[in-house]
Amino acid sequence: MEWGRVKSILIGVFLVVNIFLITNYLQENKTSFKIREDVIENTVLVLKNNEIHIDTSIIPRRMQDVRIFDIANRFETPQAATVAFREKAQNVGSELFNPSFVTFGDDYFEYKSDYETSIVAQNENDAATHSNNIVSILKINENMLLNTEVLLNDDGFFSVNITPEFEGLKILDTYLNIKFGAQTSIYGYNWLCGNITPGGMASIQPITEILINFATSGMKHNVSINKIILGYYVGRTQEGISTVTAVPVWKLEISDGSCCYYDARNGDLLE
């Protein structure tokens, strides 16, 4: 074969490989953009004209693509979760999830200890240590990274909110709350902790568009937006093992105690 022909073939292969690599890079890497301050100011004006108050410092300025992923729930029902947790607790001699102190519903479970087996947390470090121990006993951290937040409640007792996260963003509508006090309680809502299958990247709507949608929807008047969070939303768990696609969302926490979830990809109101 002539060298000129071989050279042409090699150049062609080189170009194809590079095109593939560049395309793959664009699909797998995040892109971001920044919202101009004049856009922020105009958005706040729209909110104000619709009797919605907000501190401009809580409005995110930089938007970044997020990864889509599928997630499976680990247990068929909340009751099945409590049975599995009880078995794991018994393996290490723990009284956690004694059936006499367990309740559950379609999308939650709760364990409340008796007074004799209650765990007391004297400070934040105590609460974090005890909650980590409980998570380890129940093996809740086998499939996902967990975000842990220690809180001091109005009653003077500590509680710990535990939220699963993916690539630094919380799954906002599923959580575990552990409260230490006269009784130790473990409350799980919509708890999904099964296998994760990562997908591709998705661009997101600027938060300013979401805020304008909220202000002009007429849903709320004379309220404040207290917090804005970018995360994921999975919806209510159905009975049985199933796989759902986690939706990237903007969550708005409102001063009246309510919250709104907007699909971050297209701005649709989810809840």
Strand fraction:
25-35%
Which of globular, elongated, flat, extended, rod-shaped describes the shape?
A: globular
Q: Class by helix and strand content? A: alpha+beta
Number of strands: 15
What is the average of the pLDDT values?
Answer: 85
Radius of gyration: 24 Å
**Order of secondary-structure elements:** HEHEEEHEEHEEEEEEHEEE
Domain unit count: 2
Helices, by number, come to 5
Share of helix among residues? 25-40%
Low-pLDDT parts are 5-28
Question: What would your notes on this structure say?
Answer:
This protein is α+β, with helices and mostly antiparallel strands and 271 residues long. The protein has helices at 3-28, 37-49, 78-91, 124-138, 207-216; strands spanning 32-34, 52-54, 62-64, 66-72, 102-104, 108-112, 145-152, 158-166, 169-170, 175-179, 185-189, 196-202, 223-233, 243-254, 259-263. It is built from five helices and 15 strands. The strands form three sheets. Strands 5, 6, 7, 8, 9, 10 and 11 form a seven-stranded antiparallel β-sheet that branches. Strands 2, 4, 12, 13, 14 and 15 form a six-stranded mixed β-sheet that branches. A two-stranded antiparallel ribbon has the order 1-3. Helix 2 runs parallel beside helix 5 (207-216). It is globular and about 60 Å long. Mean pLDDT is 85; it is low at 5-28.
